[in-house]
Amino acid sequence: MIQVGDKLPAGTLQEFIEVEGEGCSIGPNAFDIQTATAGKTVAIFGLPGAYTPTCSAKHVPGYVAKADELKAAGVDEIWCVSVNDAFVMGAWGRDQGTAGKVRMMADGSADFAKATGLTLDLTARGMGLRSNRFSMLVQDGVVKTLNVEGPGKFEVSDADTMLAQARAA
Fold first, then answer.
1. What's the pLDDT tens digit per position in 26-52?
2. Which family does it belong to (predicted)?
């Protein structure tokens, strides 16, 4: 599993873009992880799936609510990463009101989850291989803090924990 001090793995994540601009077309766009984090402080949180209960009721809403405070604490971008396709992540982002606050990044084939060792096997529940629930503060592509939840828990990857860590960084 990825550890504090490690560089994020090479790879891409997809984001559904609603409005064409800054070289991005409308629809799914691929972003190189290393390029997208270079020279930035990024709060990344991962979760098992779009539209699932804890993810929709607590995890994403917490980061949306704390987005301004996180940015005031030095966070340039906030990413939500989930093993879903970019279309689902885009629709979920619209439902959650994430525009301008949280980038909804799709890890459709679980490549990022596998490369970081942050996978969660939910095959028995009909969901296949997913991302574990986690959060990390990344500076210039390097993991500065890492908070991985235990099975079925939501205690350390929340926005309040990340905010305290960003303020301390």
1. 789 999 999 999 999 999 999 999 999
2. Belongs to the peroxiredoxin family. Prx5 subfamily.
Neighbours of 146 (CB within 10 A): 22
Over range 79-106, report the average pLDDT. 97
- pTM attached to this predicted model: 0.95
The one catalytic residue among 13, 36, 43, 55:
55
138 token code pair: 């990344």
Instruction: Assess if residue 6 is contained within a domain.
Output: no
**CATH number of the structural domain spanning residue 54:** 3.40.30.10
Size of the chain in residues:
169
Is 24 labeled as catalytic in the residue annotation? no
Backbone angles phi, psi at 20, to 5 degrees: -65, 135
Kindly state the tokens that stand for 10: 């090479």
Whether 7 is covered by a domain: the verdict is no
3 in any annotated domain:
no
